[in-house]
Amino acid sequence: MTIDTVHAGAAGAWQLGDLTVNRMGLGAMRLTANADGSPSDRDRAVAVLRRAVELGVNHIDTAAFYFSPLRSANELINRALWPYPEGLVIVTKVGPGKDPSGQWLPAARPDQLRGQVEENLRQLGRDHLDVVNLRVHGPEPLSEHFGALAELRDAGLIRHLGVSAVRPHQVTEARAIAPVVCVQNSYGLGYRRQHDELIRDCAAHGTAFVPFFSLVTSGREAGATGEEHPEVLAVAREHGVTAAQVRLAWTLARGPNVLAIPGTGDPAHLEQNVAAAALRLSPADLARLDAV
């Protein structure tokens, strides 16, 4: 499989409300820092974003708390892509926050969410946000927080809403308040497979399921450290692709409503990730990988 001609649309598209996105997208977190924690190269990160759009990526996942010393994901997106091309959908998330030194702050109260939304607007240079996910963490009710975001949607600051790091009952709770266009949870091959039922529930409601950490292996993301599973390596060899590409193709095969947002600050890895949109695993491949 060559990587020069693959378009992000090769895996098909899905609707986030009235917004159409290709199922292969890009996560922005890894644009801000190198593997050793040092600030990323600004020009390289900008080049990755621009190349992603050239390859048909029109779904970028970001957050105001994606930053490292000297680098902010939102600022990089703004610098690389402003004026934003028609059809580009930028999805951000609120709830968590960091102080300027990068230390995590307590989760935002409902009355603090407007400030987080406005900070994303400022950094991205937008007058409204396409999609905002409420990042939850924990089983507590989310009605007050999600209700506050629904008010900001009604005020025109947000177009669509989603939820992140949630339990199934919280998705139901959110749907009772406002439409939920996407659910973003950690999920991948051999990782958090208890979300299989949630993926099916999302599909039944026309909701996108957007896994993060879809390249995990041995508790870490592939490409960092940790050993890859022999079955993944075997399937990769047979297709002449990388293990990460197999994992992405497996993710996309979970359902037409599943979107991939692999993150990278490396132009070569970007092209490999997008190329995975064209990789079709056979039923036999998928059966073998289910044993992982």
The fraction of residues in strands falls at: 15-25%
Total beta strand runs? 13
Overall body shape: globular
Helix segment tally: 10
SSE pattern, N- to C-terminal: EEEHEEEHEHEHEHEHEEEHHHH
Q: Please summarize the sheet with the most strands.
A: 7 strands, parallel
Overall mean pLDDT stands at 93
What class would the helix/strand composition place it in? alpha/beta
| Low-pLDDT segments | 218-225
Spatial gap, N to C terminus:
24 Å
Radius of gyration: 18 Å
Percent helix, as a range, is 25-40%
The neighbouring-strand order within the major sheet is 3-4-7-8-9-10-11
Task: Provide a descriptive summary of the structure in words.
With 292 residues, the chain is of the alpha/beta class. It is globular and about 55 Å long. 34% of the residues lie in helices and 16% in strands. It has 10 helices and 13 strands. Strand 5 and strand 6 form a beta hairpin. The protein has helices at 42-54, 73-81, 113-124, 143-154, 168-175, 196-204, 230-239, 243-252, 267-275, 283-289; strands spanning 13-16, 19-22, 26-27, 59-61, 67-68, 71-72, 89-94, 129-135, 158-164, 182-184, 208-209, 216-217, 220-221. The longest helix is centred in the N-terminal third of the chain and has 13 residues, at 42-54. The chain has a 7-stranded parallel sheet with strand order 3-4-7-8-9-10-11, with helices on one face. Strands 1-2 form a two-stranded antiparallel ribbon. Strands 5-6 form a two-stranded antiparallel ribbon. Residues 218-225 have low confidence and may be disordered.
